[in-house]
């Protein structure tokens, strides 16, 4: 199938139904297109700012002039002429010219969210999916064939780790070498020229909060012809891997981008050629595996993206404040915004200005029993947050990673990844005032009876 669906054009295509014949465009169609044309023109100082890029992305208006776009809830789409359908299936006519076939392929509402995600990450194109894991698995299956090889970070979300270590070797004959992503020599040595297809890592790792030096890792991979795929779920706005050299950026939109803990969604951001190949009728992973996003979900998410920057700044500001104060109290705090974090200078050099160092912090309580007691007090005694997995919610969410989101790893794998039995991952929310929530945290600390928690680290 020819490349049809996504390009960098910011022209808002006409909403009225057209025939497949260019001669049947009337003057009103052309006038509408010209009036709504808005080229992407960024000043040099805006290039690295994802909020500026989002603001410059095309704005889709509603069918009847509403400031918000209409929801195209149709599964299938009509044509005006019989010949048009053949031309659409051959790839001659596509969404870039406002021709749609079926919503598992392209849907106007989902396509609009995809444009916003591409703007956010600074990539040529994007496609939104039903979940973060569907985005990750589809990209890997598109880039790798049977007998292929992946080099991946040792510290990954448990589901991704299981996909790479168990499912793909069994089902696809695709193997993975796991390495410390901060050991660049190990990364280089793990790449098998001619066989390794992908270098995969998280910009800020889940849950150990290790920061990847994206430009250097991209240089290593590209020198050997390897595609770089980065999961940026922990750091939207904070980091822009696509602008730092990564070929593909994936997201679990369910987290910070959604912000409401009410939606499951994902995204693949990358070159138009890749996105279109993933939608190919015969070879496309997205097309054939079918992780389709509901257009009603896409509409809701598109309404949340404009204030993502404001939310991220507050998540990060509070995370840094709490991490700093907890460290002073003697806790073993892991947060890349702290000067003593081994990757602090790396993140500081790569982060987009003014967004902070991430909204996640970890507290190592060393044992699961202490960690459980700590979380129980924070939720049930002081109402500081909730014991729940996931992240990016407006309330603070807390979980013990080793026995929850990283439970797919065995004890040795967890130790190598830096995940202790008592590691509490905290996604810092922004509900209430900062001092109000801090007082709740302090109240929980006063109830802790184990003095070992207060030993200086």
Please characterize this protein's 3D structure:
It is a single chain. The protein has 457 residues and is α/β, with parallel strands linked by helices. The chain has three domains: 76 residues, no CATH class; 198 residues, 3-Layer(aba) Sandwich (Aspartate Aminotransferase, domain 2), CATH 3.40.640; 148 residues, Aspartate Aminotransferase, domain 1 (Alpha-Beta Complex), CATH 3.90.1150. It has 16 helices and twelve strands. It has a seven-stranded mixed β-sheet with strand order 1-7-6-5-4-2-3, sandwiched between helices. Helix 5 packs parallel to helix 6. The chain is globular. The N terminus and C terminus are likely disordered.
The Cα radius of gyration reads: 23 Å
How many structurally independent domains? 3
Q: Which descriptor suits the 3D outline?
A: globular
Helix segment count?
16
Question: Main sheet, how many strands, which sense, barrel?
Answer: 7 strands, mixed
Helices and strands: which structural class? alpha/beta
Distance between the termini: 58 Å
CATH-derived architecture of the largest domain: 3-Layer(aba) Sandwich
Counting DSSP E segments of at least 2 residues, the number of strands comes to: 12
**What is the N-to-C order of secondary-structure elements (H for helix, E for strand)?**
HHHHEHEHEHEHEEEHHHHEHEHEEHEH
Give the neighbour order of strands across the main sheet. Answer: 1-7-6-5-4-2-3
The low-pLDDT segments are: 1-46, 453-457
CATH topology name of the largest domain: Aspartate Aminotransferase, domain 2
Give average pLDDT, whole number.
87
